[in-house]
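Q: For a teaching session next week I want to show students how multiple molecules come together into a single three-dimensional assembly. I've collected the sequence lines for a complex. Could you give me the predicted structure tokens for the whole thing so I can convert them for display?
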Amino acid sequence: MLDLWLKEAQIDDVALTYKIEKTLIRKQTKYQDLAIVETKRFGRMLLLDGIVQTTIMDEFIYHEMITHIPLFAHKNPKRVLVVGGGDGGAVREILKHSNIDKVVLCEIDEDVIKYSKEFLPEISCALDNPKCEIFIGDGLNYVIEHKNEFDVIVVDSTDPFSVGENLFGGSFYKAIFECLKEDGIFIAQTETPFLLPDLVKKIYKDVEIAFPIAKIFLAGIPTYPTGFWSFTVGSKKYDPSKFSKSEVPFPTKYYNKELHEACFVLPQYIKDLINK
Amino acid sequence: MLDLWLKEAQIDDVALTYKIEKTLIRKQTKYQDLAIVETKRFGRMLLLDGIVQTTIMDEFIYHEMITHIPLFAHKNPKRVLVVGGGDGGAVREILKHSNIDKVVLCEIDEDVIKYSKEFLPEISCALDNPKCEIFIGDGLNYVIEHKNEFDVIVVDSTDPFSVGENLFGGSFYKAIFECLKEDGIFIAQTETPFLLPDLVKKIYKDVEIAFPIAKIFLAGIPTYPTGFWSFTVGSKKYDPSKFSKSEVPFPTKYYNKELHEACFVLPQYIKDLINK
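A: Of course. Below is the structure for the complete assembly, covering every listed component.
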């Protein structure tokens, strides 16, 4: 029997390996090496440049936390920008909020959208929603060209070691600040604090310079290295760690109202890291 | 160059792999296959039957959380029993509490103690403390033979698939209840809720039958499968999720006062799992 395994070596000297059934698609796109494989344990899995982006089994954690935290911290969000996120998972969660009028998805690589629609319909299902506008292009340029337009900006990027590189750093966060309305909130996925403490600290400090309020929260994501992932939030007005509604009006699988506040309570080593 | 990797296949179809420098000790003890290896990323690592037990780099998370949660929830703990935990990490943390008069370590496999003392001195350093009494023997028998003796019992066992098997289940928790004083608290490491939901639920339900108060909390442990680990607490009187002191009187690296309460706030899928 063919015993196929996928090895993800995102971090030197430690790797997550997955038994796979088959490779559904593998393509060198204009920007990256895209693959979707069928794993035994996590279902279908999207990889970009060999790094796990999302899987059918655990995608709910990442997509709920990167969207519901800023959207339930903001008092009345109407317009949302997603930078990256071509798989559509963030858009799907955002459109569960009935107050949202429009989501713009700015994805540089149209093949991510194309193959997510074909092979990951559970994740990409909302990309055809009339409230979703898809723009194929560079996230940094889009943000620079649009001022004072969005209530929430979700940076659902790859890691800073690949095509997502210019979606990290002080000048990007400054542009994000300008692109947001006066009470806007921005969120980004920001890597593993255990294995990449210097990176997590640098991102936090950069966001702290660009925004009056900067906070980090954590979520347990099985298919990301160490399983304990950070998100950094920059906010102009609202405290991102406060749930601003009375109830969550739709079912969720990871996020809930109590967790909204609790996930911002940091383990001591992470608190020490960003307060140094 | 010799490219040595260790593969931990605790869970079917997914594995954590570590680049290693060398194997420091490998021995078939009376009970299990013991190994201590030097990894590149996590430092020295103890394995029992091929399963990662602890590493120099991330052991602080597990050992702080399995001890400080019950010890700071209890109003005045004096006597503590550790079942398993032959590496000594739990004893080291327990003895940071100046009110503790005595810790009994009941470990079935004396080789775990012997080789932890030899190769993991940072972890085992408190095993020679005069307040620590070491008893080599079966944990279940010890618990049955001692009634109403301990304020806190820490079950720092291997998984229920190996020598630790009889340290899980309703009859063990009932014996634990009897072994505790009238306001005692018990804690156990209880696996990954994401990959082993049925097991986590069963343990919780068994503890809920044996104790008036049962709660689960989570911690991010990089070297355990999925990185998001559950601990189950059974308590006779005190709410385990409440920090009962004013301050933490010694430095910690993961645990802190605010996290004491926040770590009990569960993601929705785990809340749903145990409330079903």
